[in-house]
Amino acid sequence: MLAMPGKEELCYDRAVLHMDLDAFFVSVECLKNSDFLGKPLIIGGVSNRGVVSTCSYEARRFGVHSAMPMKLALRLCPQAIVLRGDMDSYSRYSKLVTEIIAADAPLFEKSSIDEFYLDLTGLDKYFGCYKWALEMREKIISESGLPISFGLSTNKLISKVGTGEGKPNGKHQVEKGKEKSFLSPLSVKKIPGVGKQTYKKLSFMGVRKIKTLSEIPSRLLEREFGKTGNKLWQKANGIDNTPVVAYSEQKSMSKERTFTEDTLNMNYIQNLLKKMVDDLTFDLRSAERLTSCITVKIRYADFNTYTKQKRIAYTANENILGNYAMDLFSVLYERRQLIRLIGVKFSGLVYGSYQISLFDDSLTSIKLLQEKDWIKKRFGSDKILRASCL
Among 76, 117, 185, 382, which one is most buried in terms of CB atoms within 10 A? Predict the structure, then answer.
């Protein structure tokens, strides 16, 4: 058991620890098969149109990275071992690490399948936040066998960037008052949330270092980037008051619609079902979740209600889930009566970003999803949708 604070008055200087399992999927595969240790290993789609989900550091030395077409990855590193991966195993190991953290952490948030934030505020007075973090890291490595890195600072942003600077299998502490000097020499790519499009636009403006970005007036950034401009300025200046939210496991997410008038308009019903799936998959990706079960629900005019579900491979792809929803609806709708309500539910949720999931998508389809999500996050979820749903 790690040392914990007593009941005396706590010191209120904020301390946030960010922990990230290194090359998580690859590390799990190496635990299952030690022959993979030290070798270039790629996890991802194995078809001709497959995409790299993640890869070992040995493969990264050849230029391989996530979301790269598998064909290109194998041209860069022809000796690489390619695995489709096992999401069930990754979920089990993620749960194990979560339980280890939960046993000792005062307050923690699980932000993805392999990433955690811990609020250690007050521990510096009784034990030492850095010493506590070191012991937690050693405990995770000892009990799970997985390598993990951490960053420790005064807020979630600095701690996350610190973890990135400490990788692989390392640690980094940024002391209070040194946040800006730590960020200044780094590339703006290091700022969480700065994707390819934002980086491209910043580069066009001549902004490549965080120091330069921090010196641009907030109003100018808002003019160029909309409501995210001020957030960019705050991040560049090391400002982040986001709290660590106590961890709770979401089991499912769903949507349903009761019609004002019972209907037999199949075109309308099916398009509505597709829109529900699109909205839910956007919620999944925003929460960095994947689903393994889809359920469709029908309530007829006589109030009789029927549901049908299907277990599926983990995904957050709206096209895959939309097809399953249509199939379930076709099987479920047998009575040919007026419909009063329709609904869809995703369950069996696990943490995991779609761009690092394990499906044989093309790079084009992944980029399309990313662009659609970017538009929805910036302008609102109703600003882009299928033409059939208008």
Answer: 117
